[in-house]
From TrEMBL:
Domain Gliding motility-associated protein GldM N-terminal as annotated: residue spans: 31-198
InterPro entries for the chain: GldM_Ig-like-2, Motility-assoc_prot_GldM_N
Residue span(s) of domain Gliding motility-associated protein GldM second immunoglobulin-like: 256-329
Taxonomic lineage from the root: Bacteria, Pseudomonadati, Bacteroidota, Bacteroidia, Bacteroidales
Protein name, UniProt field: Gliding motility-associated protein GldM
Length: 449
């Protein structure tokens, strides 16, 4: 019996049937994809709104003067930004893997079901993200004393398995198309920034209450009929500066107070409010040791020179000293640099450290951006930096210098020579502000992949 061979036309028809069956098996309706896309856009807008709102809370916290709280909040935000950067990098990687596995290059791959599982579950990136979320949740709870807020943060960042035993990783990334994963990543970001927001609000309320992160015991001042004495009692309870001027018979005739007890930053325009409540009109003369001070509107701008660890604010009237306040002077926080580049998705991103970049992404690096920490805008700009490339094979070094924040043509040429195994370092980054001398910030190490 002779072997029967299908004609080419029938083979093509059979192949088309196989393709059709496969497409029906994995088909995701357009309505579902559109729903994912809409939810993703809404959540990204929420994240940006939260970032702006949180920035306002950080400024309020910095104005309260509790540097311990400011530093803890700044460190918490720094860790959140690292998670943020990792999430954006994972999104870009999933997009690239989906496009590389697509039969039709350049087409939309939002419905791809393989890339998410490969990157997030098989490579255990979801588990690493879960560990980062848990660590962030723990630090938020350490700064939060209000029970309602603690429950809210615990709920937002809950990573426990569900009632059916499905893990956090599976709940978030199993059987998801690319656009569904983007939506889920945006949800995780939104929950993280919400938890940070709740933490900031709690810290602000705690610091405003008694300038401490420890539980507070309420002390109510006993108000006297004398207005000035009542204000003094109130100020003492609020931990504010207040000094009184009395007559020879002990009768209080003037109260001089400043806004808060915040340390002053060296070489920085610190806002100080000086108020005199008096029985008669008073012209104040205000001076600052180890620095300068000027009146601006109803406030004073104090700029310590940083040569000493303290600065004394003196308030006079008619040559007579009314009050003196000693302020602690602290070094101005150094801004943290990041590199602006174009990700594989076509969007502009910030690179800080620890995330590998492709050759194309490295070649798209255009400038250095300064990020202000601790809610203090130092108003500094980049005045220069060096780019250093150390080749992995023969350890040869290529260097170039820029006199600003932008990369020079020579630097961009060096970036084209970068390969996996090389060391690429942006170093000697110099910054300068209106009052600050030229100083250097940390280097940025790029990991080529």
């Amino acid at each position: 019996m002779s072997n029967y061979k299908l004609p080419p036309r029938q083979k093509m028809i059979n192949l088309l049937y196989v393709i059709l069956i496969a497409m029906l098996a994995i088909n995701i309706s357009g309505e579902v994809l559109d729903g994912f896309a809409t939810a993703n856009q809404d959540m990204k807008k929420n994240v940006e709104t939260l970032k702006v709102y949180n920035g306002g809370l950080e400024k309020q916290l910095a104005a309260c003067g509790n540097m311990d709280a400011v530093q803890k909040a700044a460190q918490l935000k720094k860790e959140l930004l690292v998670i943020d950067e990792n999430i954006m990098h994972l999104e870009d990687t999933i997009q690239v893997v989906a496009q590389e596995g697509s039969f039709t290059k350049g087409m939309n791959v939002d419905d791809d079901l393989n890339a998410v599982e490969a990157i997030m579950l098989h490579q255990q990136n979801a588990s690493e993200l879960k560990v980062a979320v848990e660590a962030f949740r723990k630090k938020c709870l350490q700064l939060t004393f209000d029970e309602t807020s603690r429950k809210m943060i615990g709920s937002l960042l809950n990573t426990d398995a569900d009632e059916k035993g499905k893990s956090w990783e599976e709940r978030h990334f199993a059987n998801l198309p690319v656009i569904g994963c983007k939506m889920m990543m945006s949800k995780i970001q939104k929950d993280l920034w919400l938890a940070f927001n709740e933490t900031l609000r709690c810290v602000n309320e705690r610091v405003k209450g008694n300038d401490s992160l420890m539980p507070r015991q309420e002390v109510r001042p006993v108000l006297d009929n004398n207005l000035l004495e009542a204000l003094v009692a109130h100020l003492e309870n609020r931990n504010m500066h207040g000094q009184t001027v009395k007559n020879k018979d002990g009768h209080m005739k003037m109260l001089v107070m400043t806004e808060n007890q915040a340390p002053l930053f060296a070489n920085y325009e610190n806002l100080i409010s000086v108020t005199a409540l008096s029985e008669s009109p008073t012209n104040l003369e205000v001076s600052l040791s180890n620095g300068s001070i000027r009146k601006e509107g109803s406030n004073y701008i104090a700029v310590p020179d940083g040569k000493e660890q303290t600065a004394v604010l003196t308030v006079k009237s008619g040559g007579k000293v009314l009050a003196r306040y000693e302020y602690k002077v602290m070094p101005l926080p150094t801004p943290v640099p990041s590199l602006m580049y174009i990700a594989s998705s076509g969007r502009q991103r910030e690179y800080r450290s620890n995330v590998p970049l492709s050759q194309k992404e490295i070649q798209s690096i255009s400038r250095i951006k300064l990020n202000m920490e601790g809610g203090v805008n130092t108003q500094e700009t980049v005045t220069g930096f060096d780019l250093m490339l150390i080749k992995g094979q023969n350890q040869t070094v290529r260097m170039a210098h820029s006199n600003g924040a932008e990369l020079t043509p020579e630097m961009k040429q060096i970036l084209t020579k970068t390969m996996k195994g090389d060391k690429l370092i942006f170093t000697n980054i110099s910054v300068k502000g209106k009052h600050t001398p030229v100083r250097q910030t940390v280097s940025v190490n790029v990991i080529p992949m």
